[in-house]
Every structure is written in C-alpha cells, then in structure tokens.
Amino acid sequence: MYKELKKFKVNNSFTFTTDDSLEEVCNASETGSGIFLVYAVDGEEKELIMVSSTGTVQNDGTLKSKNGGLHDKIVNGHQFAKTGRKYSWPAQMKLENIERLEVLWFETFNDKVKAIPTFVEGQILQNFLDETGKLPRWNVAF
Fold this sequence. Notes:
Layout: E1 11-16, H1 22-25, E2 33-42, E3 45-54, E4 56-57, E5 63-64, H2 69-76, H3 85-96, E6 100-109, H4 117-132
Antiparallel strand pairs: 1-6, 2-3, 2-6, 4-5
C-alpha cells in the first residue's frame, strides 16, 4: 500500500465480481469524501488499474461534496460510457477477462484529517507513473 494512505483512519475495502450488484457490495462512506483505488485481481496477482477521488475543497477551507459521498461516486460515477460504473464495470470486466475487482477507499477529508482528495489522488498517480512510466489502464488522463 502507498505510504500516503496510512494516515487515513476511515477506510475499508470490498470485492466486486460481474455476478455482484455494485450498489450492494460497495461499503464506501455515503457521507465522506476521499479517494478510491481499484485493483484487478487474478488469483494471487493484483494490478492497480484505477485511482479516483471525490470532493472539492473551497477557498474557505470547507469541503464541497456531492450527495452520496464516495459510495455514490464509485457506484454511479461515469466511466467507459455515459453510464454509471454499476453498469460499465461489469461490461469492461468481461471485455478484459477480469475475474474480480478489489476496491480500497479512504476518507481523506473529515473532522480529523484535511487532505484534498484530488491532491492525494495525484500523489498516488505520480507514484504509479514514477514506478511504471504510465498511468493505471482505467485512468484515461490526469
């Protein structure tokens, strides 16, 4: 795990297969903002394939977040098409022969810690770029 994520105490993870309902298996915070990392899992092999975030810090230091928090961003955020991940992830997993996804999520901005979600997302993506020379394959750009 990336060292930048160790300080975020409100976190969890879940796995998702094409047989699951993303809405049901997603245990991410419905009120919190932060980042999530998506790994493609094949047996014992895990590959980071996406990093994303939700929540914007305003100039007065407050957080602006959409209703539904990380949970809504993971389940209903658009990816691969103009449709929510609850539909696009299973389709993409079938296309790429991905057995299951492991999703780790972290609240980066709350009463105890105040890290800008997109900044933390950028740190993780920069580390990945430094290690591999590219972005995770499900990240189109940053």
